[in-house]
Amino acid sequence: MVGGGIAGLASAIELALAGAGVVVAEATGAPTERFGETLAPGVLARLDRLGLSEVFRSAGHLSCPGTAVCWGSDRIGHNDFVLDPHGPAWHIDRSRFELMLRARAVQLGVEVLPATRVVDVEESGTRTVAAVRSPSGAPVGTRTVSARWLIDASGPTAWLARRRDVGRVVIDRLVALVRIAAVAGSFTAQTLVESTPEGWWYAARIPADRLVTVFVTEPRSARALISEGWAGWHWALGATRLLADRLADAGVTAEGAAFRVGSIGVSRLSRVAGERWLAVGDAAAQLDPIAGRGIHDALGDAGHAARLVAESLRGGRPAIAEFGDRVHARFAEHLTQREGWYDVERQWPAAPFWRHRAAGLLRARPAATVR
User: Fold this and answer.
1) What is the topology classification, in CATH, of domain 6-65+91-166+269-334?
2) Are 353 and 218 in contact (CB under 8 A)?
3) Where is the FAD-binding domain (predicted)?
4) What is d(CA 217, CA 48) in angstroms, rounded to the nearest whole number?
5) Which of 215, 276, 313, 340 shows its CA 20 to 30 Å from the CA of 206?
6) What is the average pLDDT score of the chain?
7) Strand bridging mode 117-124 / 127-133
8) What is the C-alpha separation between 83 and 202, in angstroms, rounded?
9) Predicted pLDDT at 140
10) Cβ proximity of 355 and 218 under 8 Å
11) Which residues, given as ranges, of the chain have pLDDT below 50?
12) Could you tell me the CA-to-CA distances from 139 to 134, 192, 242, 347 in Å, in that order?
């Protein structure tokens, strides 16, 4: 397994439950706070398959009853999950969630190698030999792992697919400017979403009395907003109609807050599977966060990929091509929905962010092979 994030660990758990031996090489030493804190309704069914639904429920994550949206007009709309048969959405502690997956994988006998990168792969008969390396000075050093299958869960960089000369179809490039701050007062359990001329915002309460506030915009605007610290970001937040007052009422301040910048490349691999390898999660396809389905779909892909690999290990002939078709079809559906969401917002047709997304930038560009 190349990568030990959510998609990689979920795939490892599924394979271990099927009786396969699994090694996971994860570049980070321990899960870190990452962009992406929302789980879509229905995720508990996917966690139950991993034997984790009860653990998840007791871990202090926060249920989300719906979304309050200011998009396309000055009026606030609502998308509630009260009647959704799949239940509520969830606001999670991302690090705690990944630690839960890692603990479950280890419990099932998965060998997890933290702070370890796959640095080379080569074919050897019916197996692939991967060289993995820990940081300089670590006791593991460099070792080789012989595997019948490799799963690329290395995120949008798609390290393994790149080694296979697989191109990536890029639809859009966005930047997320993220602040995680303490909440001193009360704050809604809903997710707040608001469009502005330069992009769109969302805010959500997450465990441990914290609030994540994110601005999604174009790279040029992002650079301008943080060119002199984060003063521009705070000014832009103060100009919002829905978020500013609610955050002020909740006692959210910049003191002690953590800031980070995340790159969002709405994209997919031109091919997500090949001879004895598959890509899952963001390595296979990275969605616009407006969909709020990244983790949900990563868990689904992990299950599908693991079943195919397990079938192959048992001597069967799994329909690998169908896995790629499914990923590409879902991504195409996402683009159609995304174009519809952005098309609703017509308050600022001359603003670059909205003009670009209404002028064909949502259509696929030719795939480029990253080497």
Assistant:
1) FAD/NAD(P)-binding domain (3.50.50)
2) yes
3) 2-317
4) 36
5) 340
6) 89
7) antiparallel
8) 23
9) 55
10) no
11) 364-371
12) 8, 46, 52, 58
Amino acid letter for position 42: G
> The pTM is what?
0.91
Q: State both tokens at 38.
A: 């929302």
CB 25 within 8 A of CB 1: yes
Contact indicator for 280, 305 with CB cutoff of 8 Å: yes
pLDDT at site 370: 44
Instruction: Name the pairing type of β-strands 273-274 and 277-279.
Output: antiparallel
Token pair 């998009």 is found at: 71
Task: Match 């030990």 to its residue by tokens.
Answer: 4
The rounded distance, in Å, linking the Cα atoms of 197 and 132 is 46
How many angstroms separate the CA atoms of 47 and 44, rounded? 5
Query: Which residue bears the tokens 């309050």?
Result: 68
Q: How many residues does this entry show for the chain?
A: 371
Tokens of 173: 């490039």
Half-sphere exposure of residue 211, counting CA atoms within 13 Å on the CB side? 26
What confidence tens digit (pLDDT) does each residue in 107-118 have?
Answer: 999 999 988 889
d(CA 232, CA 271): 40
Q: Tell me the domain boundaries of the chain.
A: 6-65+91-166+269-334
The rounded distance, in Å, linking the Cα atoms of 147 and 129 is 6
